[in-house]
Amino acid sequence: MHLVEMNNVNRQYGSGRTLFEALHPTDFVLDRGEFIGLTGPSGSGKTTFLTILGLLQSPTQGQILVNGQDVTKMSDSEKTDLRFNKFGFVLQASNLIPFLTVNEQFKLVNKFSHSRRKKINPKELLDILDLKDVADKYPNNLSGGERQRAAIARALYNNPDIILADEPTASLDSKRAEQVVELLAQIAHNSQKAVIMITHDTRLLSATDHVYEMRDGYLRQQD
Ligand SMILES: Nc1ncnc2c1ncn2[C@@H]1O[C@H](COP(=O)(O)OP(=O)(O)OP(=O)(O)O)[C@@H](O)[C@H]1O
Ligand SMILES: [Mg+2]
Fold this sequence. Notes:
- There is one protein chain.
- By secondary structure, the chain is α/β, with parallel strands linked by helices.
- The chain has a single domain (4-221), classed as Rossmann fold (3-Layer(aba) Sandwich), CATH 3.40.50.
- Helix content is 30%, strand content 26%.
- Strands 6-7-8-3-9-10 form a six-stranded mixed sheet, with helices on both faces. The chain has a four-stranded antiparallel sheet with strand order 2-1-4-5, with helices on one face.
- The protein is globular and about 50 Å long.
- It binds adenosine-5'-triphosphate and magnesium ion (MG).
């Protein structure tokens, strides 16, 4: 059974004369242990694809199975539950809560997570992501790179099966970017998780197992 399976999934925006298909009908499977890279020009549909796979928005048509369960038949609250416990998101717009410090972002996850799965030690995460010195700071007082790493730490903390990262290294210097990508690769390979990373930096794609390219709403596997 695949971790995620998308069958004939598309996404249209607008209606009538403004109708626009951002994602053309797409088949895609994601398995445990896979680290997938996704590239493509701006506006080609990468975030649309990732947010549909992560159940943050519904497809216009098509079927999505997570662990063999048909998500398109689930209620909103079932989907929210699944999203919260199975997925970790690092989104383009930083998804940190502005009135919580870096450390407190983890506590919030605890409050909402029903998952009995073991959490990752927050100290370890802060250490790996070089955030120890800013653990008590609020997002507004972090640099762009620190904010991005804090968002990654929070996404990993819940120990999700599927990590969806939308340009997680965009505001990192190249050394830190490589470290973050290395960490994502380890998580995918050693803990049998699945990671999808959108990136414009083709150098980082060498750490991934498969590369997909999005062009004008068409997803194509490159290798
Ligand atoms: N909510 C929306 N309503 C209407 N159009 C949208 C919406 N979200 C995205 N689009 C359009 O769909 C297309 C794909 O957008 P998407 O955000 O998926 O691109 P992307 O590949 O992630 O681009 P980038 O690399 O700039 O982040 C774009 O033309 C965008 O303008
Ligand atoms: Mg995008």
